Amino acid sequence: MSTRVALTIFILFMMSCHAQADLTPLQQQNKIRGMVLYNQYKIATPELTIAAEAGDREAQFYLAEELRQQNQYITADAKKWYMAAAEQGDYYAIFKLATSKSDLCSTMNNCPEGSKKPGEWLEHLWKIAEPKANSGDGEAMYIMYLATTKLDWLEKSAEAGYAQGQWLLANRYKEGERFFLPWKRQEVIGQWLKASAEGGFPKAMLEFSGYLYENGGDLSVARHWIEEAAKLGYETGVSSYGAYLAHAPSLYDFPLDLVKGYALTSLLTELDGGGNIKPYVDEVLPEIAAKMSPGQIDEAKVFAKQWKDSHPPLSFYPDKLGY
């Protein structure tokens, strides 16, 4: 098994170890491929369907999300898969069923048999999430915040060490939630972004690096977190790391490394689904290449392959609850 495949499997396992079904190797392979495509804003329906039909609740949720996003509303088929995941206790599927305002199948009266009303799904969500939240489960606390909008739950989630909750809390404070003296607000925002970055959340890694840059922090630490976000395959991390290494533009005092900068930027060409990355690559890659010799470009191509083979696939890390 290649290092790249092993890394992909490990990351998906860590993200969803509580959501595994008994999949065959072929079904698991399709789930992994489907998740990679979904996270790159590419069509993943065929691969996710294979794992969803095998009973994998995470695949069921993401298949429902893909179908909803393709149609801009919850179709009967999308609702079927939300319900399948919800019946296995998936918080996010239940949340969608409880809160969605784009449920066309309800309007058309053609929802799957046994469908609950949104209020019933919300009651079910509280029923399964609140006991876990009260026992210290940070993700359950995060879900309780989403379901109730009570900031206390989000603060508890952050304090319990849930990295995405820490990132969201930092942003809620940035938006003005809670009373702080101005200098204290900035300090607390930085503390939670740092905690989230240390917890492995790539969006927080980049935001914390920006926080350090804007507030006169240690740029070596900022550079570290940009690199760490890139190593996780986060699209914005890879594009930022590549651009700064190539001084296109020169920020964070990265030493000039045209070979690595070109290599990393060139990897973004595979994001040819959604995300609108192509215009960026078409502009920046020639700008970097103009500073390089043919030999350096050949060296960059070798480095790009080495990076791709030893790091997780590129991902936009979309919000699990989508739009």
UniProtKB/TrEMBL annotation:
<feature type="signal peptide">
    <location>
        <begin position="1"/>
        <end position="21"/>
    </location>
</feature>
<dbReference type="InterPro" id="IPR011990">
    <property type="entry name" value="TPR-like_helical_dom_sf"/>
</dbReference>
<keyword id="KW-0732">Signal</keyword>
<protein>
    <recommendedName>
        <fullName>Sel1 repeat family protein</fullName>
    </recommendedName>
</protein>
